[in-house]
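Lab intake sheet, docking and co-folding queue.

SAMPLE TYPE: protein with bound small molecule
LIGAND NAME: coenzyme A
LIGAND FORMAT: SMILES
REQUESTED OUTPUT: full 3D complex as structure tokens
PRIORITY: normal
SUBMITTED BY: R.K., bench team

The fields below were copied directly from the construct record.
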Amino acid sequence: MKIKLEGPRIILRPPVLSDTDIINAHVQVPDICRYTFISRLSTIESTREYIRNTRKWWRSGRNQHFAIVWKNPQCVIGMIGLSAIDHKNRNAELGYWLAKKYWGQGLTPEAIRLILDYSFKDLKLRRIYAHVMHPNKPSIRVMEKIGFQREGYLRKAVFQNGRWLDEILFAILKEDYLSHR
Ligand SMILES: CC(C)(COP(=O)(O)OP(=O)(O)OC[C@H]1O[C@@H](n2cnc3c(N)ncnc32)[C@H](O)[C@@H]1OP(=O)(O)O)[C@@H](O)C(=O)NCCC(=O)NCCS
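RESULT FIELD (auto-filled):
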């Protein structure tokens, strides 16, 4: 797992066990967890277990999760990844989160573009989709800025923090992405 995707300000690489403390510290912030499932990483042990699992998933080829590493100074500032990679139908699900102090600088779009380049060129995928819980405005905005299209509205699709939330299904095709650049 030597893979490394490099952008102007960030590097994406598989997480390692020594990232446990920083990842766990980032996800303690409620704003990060509100519209994601990462509150599962609330303890050091569960975070370590997650990182161990990412290594198994990389070997299986089904999920590829990357740490987002700020280049200067080098530190882990979030995670992004592909899940449910379906090589037969050439699609995968995208997920991402960023530590709050780094929001608003276009770093997640930079990370998503690296993932899309990699997905379409190296993995030969054709379609990347994401489920965004309503009303996760920053994430909806990110999807729109990259050129993902709204494909569906899933009513009461997730039970999150004691209430039912709707989800918006976004997707981007290889050809959409290449024409949107
Ligand atoms: C969604 C998320 C990854 C966006 O990352 P980002 O790197 O800040 O993205 P951008 O810099 O492109 O900002 C996207 C939008 O967020 C909003 N935003 C920016 N800074 C913000 C802040 N401090 N507080 C609230 N919203 C903010 C703006 O609307 C911005 O749109 P604009 O560029 O048109 O102004 C980040 O907000 C996050 O980690 N949220 C929690 C986890 C999550 O919800 N993940 C997505 C699950 S589908």
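REVIEWER NOTE: Residues 32, 35-36, 96-98, 103-109, 130, 132, 136, 138-139, 141-142 surround coenzyme A (CB under 6 Å).
SIGN-OFF: pending second check by T.M.
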